[in-house]
Design goal:
This protein is mostly helical and 76 residues long. It contains three helices and no strands. The chain has a domain of 44 residues.
Length: 76
């Protein structure tokens, strides 16, 4: 089975992890695996894209546009 190695873990974090593992009746390895399992199985919230903001430019003239002027002859 693959393994990971984490360097430079602060002593305070190791101590908290040790306490947490003891409170759950697990080894530190089992505790870390439980934390990783919880973190990787919860759904990642998807952020909705920002809404498109349209700007209307006012001009000094008034023009009537036909559909054919805006779209091509095929109406796309």
């Amino acid at each position: 089975m693959p393994a990971i190695h984490i360097r430079n873990v602060p002593e305070s974090m190791l101590s908290a992890l040790r306490e947490r593992a003891e409170a759950h009746g697990r080894s530190m390895q089992q505790e870390v695996l439980a934390i990783l399992d919880a973190a990787t199985t919860e759904p990642i919230p998807r952020q909705a894209p920002s809404p498109i903001q349209l700007v209307t430019a006012r001009t000094s003239s008034s023009t009537t546009w036909r559909r054919e002027d805006i779209y091509d002859d095929e109406g796309r």
